Amino acid sequence: MSDTDRAVLGAVVFAVLFAQVLLYPGIPDLVVALDASPAGWNGDVGAILSAGKWFLTAEFAGFVLCAGLWGALSDATGRRTPLVAAGAILGGVGYLSLAVAPRVVTVPYEVVLVVRFLQGVATIGAFSLAITTLMDLDGGHGRNMGAAGLAIGLGTAVGSPVGGQLYGLGPFVPLYVAAAVLFAVGGLATVASDRTSGRSRRLRAAVETLWRRRSLAVPFAFGFVDRLTAGFFALVGTVYFQSELGLDPGGTGLLLGAFFVPFALLQYPFGRLSDRIGRVLPVAAGSLAYGLTIVGVFYAPTVPTAGVAMVLVGVTGALVAPATMALVTDLASGDERGVAMGGFNVFGSLGFLTGIVGGATVAGRVSFEAAFLAVGLAEVVIAVVAVPFLLGLDLPASGLRGQDLTR
C-alpha cells in the first residue's frame, strides 16, 4: 500500500508544481493580459520586472502565511488527505477564477492579486501536506523525500516547456490547464491513506513544535536559500533569457527545462543515496556546487552553453533538495511532521519571495550580473557557514533512525 500512496501523493506534488511553473515562461505576457502593465510600458525591462514581481509575490505571500497553519491543522486533527484534496480543489478554483474573471468583468489588478493570494493559500495546503503524508510512509526518509523531490522536479521540468507552448495559444490557456490538473488530483488525493499517529493534538501544541525543535533551523535555512534561487529564476532568469539572450516564451521554457529535467530525474536516486551516506555531504557539498553553477549561467556566452550550465544547476540542485527535506523528517517525530514540513515550506516560500523581490530589485537597479552573483554566492555562503551545525545534529550516520530500506 505504501507504493500506491507514494504514487498518489507524488502525483499531487507534481500537479501543484506543474500548475505553478506553467505560468513562468510567459509571466510578462500574462500580467499584460491581466491589465497589470503600467501606462507607457513599451517593453521596458524595469516595468516588466515590477509587474511580474507583484503577481508572483501575491501567491507566495499566501504560501508564507498559511503553510504552517495547514501543517498545524493536520497535526491537531490527525488527518491529512482530506486537507490535501481540499487544498488542490480550492487551488483549481483560484486558477480558474484568474482566467475567467478578467474576461467577464473589468477587474482591478488589486483584486487579481487578492485572488492570486487566495490561490496560493489553497495550493500550499495541498503541496505541503502531500509531502508531509509522504514523510509518514515507511521505506526510508531519503527514499520518501526523493519521491517528493522527483515529483517536484518533474512538475517543474514538464511545466516550463509545456507552459511556453501553451502561451502560444493565448495568455490565459496555462491558467485553464492549471485549474484542470488541480481538480483532477484533488479527487485522486482521496485515495491515499492517512498514516498519522491518529492522535489529535491541540493546535497550540502543534505550533510549539517549531520552538522545541530548534535543530529544524538547519534544514529551514537551506530551504530558504534553495528556494531563493528558484524564485530568482522564475522571474529574473526568465526576463534575462528573453531580454539578453533573445528567447521567446517557448525558448525560455526549454532553457528552464534544461535545469528542471535533471533536477527531477536525479531526486529519487540522490534521496536514497542520502539514506546510505548521511545528509551532511549531499547538503553541504551540493549547495556549494549549486551556487557556483548558478553564477556560471550568467557567464555562459551563448544559448547552448547557458543550457549546459542550467543542466549542471539541475544536477547539483538535485543532490541538495531531497537530503534537506529528509533532514526535516529525521528531526521531527511522527505527530509533529505536519507543522515541521509547514515550517520548512514557510521558510522556503520566504526564500522564493526574496529571490523574486531581491533579485528583481538588484537586476533593475544594478545589473543582471550583480543579481546572479548575489544569488549564487548566497548558496555558497550557507554551505560554508552551516557545516558545523550540520555536523552537530544528533542523527545516525544513515539518517534513517533504523528504518528498513527494503520496504
Automatic annotation (TrEMBL):
The keyword Membrane applies. Residues 215-407 form the Major facilitator superfamily (MFS) profile domain. Keywords: Membrane, Transmembrane, Transmembrane helix. It comes from the Archaea. The keyword Nucleus does not apply. One of its GO terms (molecular function) is transmembrane transporter activity. InterPro entries: MFS, MFS_dom, MFS_trans_sf. The chain crosses the membrane at residues 7-27, 47-71, 83-101, 113-135, 147-167, 173-194, 215-240, 252-268, 280-300, 306-328, 340-364, 370-393. Pfam families: MFS_1. GO terms for cellular component: plasma membrane. PANTHER family: TRANSPORTER MFS SUPERFAMILY. This is MFS transporter. It comes from Halovenus carboxidivorans.
